[in-house]
Amino acid sequence: MCGIVGCILKDDEDVAPILLDCISKLEYRGYDSIGIATFHDNHINVKKDKGKIEEVDNKLDLADMPGNFGIAHVRWATHGDPSKLNSHPQLDEDNTVAVVHNGIIENYLEIKEKLTLEGHVFKSDTDTEVIPHLIQKFIKEKFDLEHAVRKTIDVIEGAYAIAAISLNEPDKIVATRKDSPLIVGIGDGGYYLASDSPAILKYARDIIYPERGEIVILDKEGVVVHDEFDNVVNKDIETINWTPEMAEKEGYDHFMIKEINEQASAVRNTLTQKENIQNIIDDLEGIERICFVACGTSYHASLTGKYLIESLAGIPTDVVLASEFKYSANTLNDKTLVIFISQSGETADSLKALDVANQTSKTLGIVNVAGSSITRRAQYVIQTQAGPEIGVAATKTYLSQLTAIYLFAALISNNAELLKELDNVPDFIDESLENVDLIEDLSRRYNFARDFFYLGRGYSYPTALEGALKLKEITYIHGEGYAAGELKHGPLALIDEGIPVVVIIPPGDNYRKTMSNLEEVKSRGANVLAIGAANDESLKAKADDVIPINENVKEIIAPLIYIVPLQLIAYYITLEKGHDPDKPKNLAKCVTVE
Ligand code: M6R
């Protein structure tokens, strides 16, 4: 998704190198173009083009722009191809106003038509271009930049975080947001805007979180926030406890492998949330039903939650994809707890669903990014403690979400045995990472496959879905996760000679039935790659390859450990295929459009 940055420095240093550094930290969001605008000598300088930041920088020397304030953008195309013209900043036709935008302006076509009739000439195919045109129109009508932005947001519909600069008001950046993320950083050397904190961690860790419809004005003297009635809002300043180093690769080749290796500590740190979770449970009286709402990997964590809560606490639990949630809204009431699972806390589908759930039910967010929209709008919050996750593929945040869900399930069902078991998980995770040489070897053998199947039963079924998602998103190989018992109801027809089938088969209640399903695919020629207990000799005899996991890992906690080799398989196959695991094509880390 698009990322925006803005900065105004207190002294007269050039801001472009800082803007470039900050916007580079948002590469992980997924993008196809980059652009910067700075203000200098009564002129707005713009450098922008499609391509990776490094390529565009080599061509245009992005850091070489005069001016001590400006805005920058990475674009993830929605309206119009990736191209120089469609890149942001977008400007009005006289180059007097420059704007960067994250989100979608839903009514841009009708605005464009109207402005065209008034004589405006548009150059790009973007929805965003109407914004600088509207701001310029209102400035011509004698509004200052702040009020021109305010008038503009009265006209546009959709989701947006916007930052604008204008020739009419030197030394000022005006920003606002609705349903797209935006934070304001207060640093020693200046004031910052960004879509996400990793962009500015190096420069500012004191953060203000603007609410929907608030207008933020940055100048050399500081930051002022106005509400929709022009009143000054006294915003809390919150200090982020993430460090700049946490958002660096720290010697690893990719963020993804760094983050896989950080999983034991992500789990350990999230286990510290036990008291907070107990307090929330104590406060939740009369809950008769739980409904998880999430997308992607967070949806898979939620599915594991359903198995845990239904089997341990006997509370009926549903799991709904956030984008489909509104169709179940009629079943909600004040005895329903709706739990939103999200790494970013900014996923548009989840936020829309949260607004719906807040009208009838109790809501709880399990979120990794502090201060994000879900943490501000949910009634209760559990903060997972994974630290910043930069790789697009969720890994350590998945395990920290699972940890929070396991704690919740164990505490709500008073299950002391499971609580004790959870303390062993970090060591089991570290031990599972020791399979890396074997997995590298398997990845060399399996990377030519066109399709993979992943099978698991019970607690291992969501693990199968998540393993398949990891494969799809970074290797671009087709992978399907199935409940092992479901295969014979149709997909078995797809099993051919040599097709890789990954079977997740921890010791426990589901072992024998899963083994029968393994034999079904094996007898139809599949190449079985099993993840199972290290001492399971009969598995070794039946599967083509086995990735061993400590035999003391019980079935109930297997989702926290058995996923690790599946993440590693996806990572190493991606390397074999020569793709960048951190920035898969077409995908964005934080999906801020519906
Ligand atoms: O930030 P969220 O957890 O709400 O994001 C939801 C999905 O977009 C996300 O989990 C996505 O599926 C992962 N990046 C996949 O690895």
In short:
With 594 residues, the protein is an alpha/beta fold. Helices cover 35% and strands 23% of the residues.
Description of the structure:
- With 594 residues, this protein is an alpha/beta fold.
- It has three domains: 3-246, Glutamine Phosphoribosylpyrophosphate, subunit 1, domain 1 (4-Layer Sandwich), CATH 3.60.20; 249-423, Rossmann fold (3-Layer(aba) Sandwich), CATH 3.40.50; 432-579, 3-Layer(aba) Sandwich (Rossmann fold), CATH 3.40.50.
- 35% of the residues lie in helices and 23% in strands.
- The chain contains 19 helices and 24 strands.
- It has an eight-stranded antiparallel β-sheet with strand order 3-2-4-1-10-9-11-14, with helices on one face. It has a six-stranded antiparallel β-sheet with strand order 5-6-7-8-12-13. A five-stranded parallel β-sheet has the order 16-15-17-18-19, with helices on both faces.
- A hairpin with a 3-residue loop joins strand 9 (183-186) and strand 10 (190-194).
- Helix 4 packs across helix 5 and helix 9 runs parallel beside helix 12.
- The model has no long low-confidence stretch (mean pLDDT 95).
Q: Write down the CATH class of the largest domain.
A: Alpha Beta
The coarse overall form would be globular
Radius of gyration from the alpha-carbon trace, in angstroms: 25 Å
The CATH architecture term of the largest domain is 4-Layer Sandwich
Strand order across the largest sheet: 3-2-4-1-10-9-11-14
Q: Low-confidence spans: pLDDT under 50, at least 5 residues?
A: none
The average pLDDT is 95
Q: Which ligands does the model contain, each kind named once?
A: 5-amino-5-deoxy-1-O-phosphono-D-mannitol
| Count of individual helical segments | 19
> CATH superfamily of the largest domain, please?
Aminohydrolase, N-terminal nucleophile (Ntn) domain
**Number of domains as seen in the coordinates:** 3
- Major pleated sheet: 8 strands, antiparallel
What would you call the structural class? alpha/beta
CATH topology of the largest domain: the name is Glutamine Phosphoribosylpyrophosphate, subunit 1, domain 1
Measured distance between first and last alpha carbons: 12 Å
Helix content: 25-40%
Oligomeric state of shown chains: single chain
